[in-house]
């Protein structure tokens, strides 16, 4: 990454008026209404996708290391069934849930820590549970930046081993990052389901 890096708070505040990301929309189409089931939004950022999950009836625990997240979430999801947790994805031990959403956040877990964070994410999924995640690929211009994680297509397949992948979009495009510099993005948007009879009904 080049140039001065904006803070996550500035990034997240700038996201408040955008539409819900396609990954979250597609995840909700697959998973259906929450009916009070538990969900995690890991690296929830602005809370725009958290709000969509809550609106669909999910009981959401939203995790982010940005300390400004809870106040934003309170405004966005006033009175909704949501618990805000300020913390590092490497430290937070999530409970078991029927849905995990994580848009554009897991790539910001350093590669040295990615494996155990991923193992936790997988373990948190109840049987029949839904997973929607973004991962960065090796042709991304940020590839090699310390503190980030990248996975080739074969690595994505390994991460998803034992899960039923129902939707995998590999995207490459040139577009500005939040810092304003045009870069090449290489991203995988993956929706998968843990096999088995659905657990976690309210
Ligand atoms: C690119 S933003 C994505 C936010 C939101 N999910 C979205 O789609 O707009 C990355 C988010 O991950 C959070 N984040 C980055 N590294 C983190 C970590 N190790 N633990 C917890 N949150 C982290 C940042 O604070 C930021 O809100």
UniProtKB/TrEMBL annotation:
Taxonomic lineage: Bacteria, Bacillati, Actinomycetota, Actinomycetes, Propionibacteriales
Species this chain originates from: Nocardioides renjunii
Domain Methyltransferase: 40-129
EC number: 2.1.-.-
Keyword Methyltransferase attributed: yes
Protein name, as recorded: Class I SAM-dependent methyltransferase
Record SUPFAM superfamilies: S-adenosyl-L-methionine-dependent methyltransferases
Keyword Aminoacyl-tRNA synthetase on entry: no
Classification via InterPro entries: Methyltransf_25 (IPR041698), SAM-dependent_MTases_sf (IPR029063)
Keywords: Methyltransferase, Transferase
A GO biological process held by the record: methylation
Cross-referenced Pfam families: Methyltransf_25
Molecular-function GO terms, alphabetical: methyltransferase activity
CDD domains, sorted: AdoMet_MTases
Classification via PANTHER family: TRANS-ACONITATE 2-METHYLTRANSFERASE-RELATED
């Amino acid at each position: 990454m080049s140039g001065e890096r904006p803070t996550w708070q500035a990034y997240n505040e700038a996201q408040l008026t955008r539409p819900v990301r396609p990954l979250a929309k597609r995840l909700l189409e697959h998973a259906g209404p929450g009916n009070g089931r538990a969900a995690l939004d890991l690296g929830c950022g602005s809370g725009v996708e958290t709000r969509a999950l809550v609106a669909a009836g999910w009981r959401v625990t939203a995790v982010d290391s940005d300390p400004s997240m809870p106040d934003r979430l309170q405004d966005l999801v006033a009175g909704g069934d949501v618990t805000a947790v300020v913390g590092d994805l490497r430290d937070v031990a999530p409970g078991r849930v029927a849905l995990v959403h994580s848009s554009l956040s897991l790539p910001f877990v350093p590669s040295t820590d990615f494996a155990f964070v991923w193992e936790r994410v997988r373990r948190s999924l109840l049987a029949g549970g839904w997973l929607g995640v973004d991962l960065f690929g090796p042709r991304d211009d940020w590839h090699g930046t310390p503190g980030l994680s990248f996975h080739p297509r074969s690595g994505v397949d390994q991460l998803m081993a034992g899960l039923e992948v129902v939707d995998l979009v590999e995207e490459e495009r040139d577009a500005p990052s939040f810092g304003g510099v045009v870069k090449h993005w290489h991203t995988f948007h993956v929706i998968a389901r843990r096999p088995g009879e659905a657990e976690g009904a309210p």
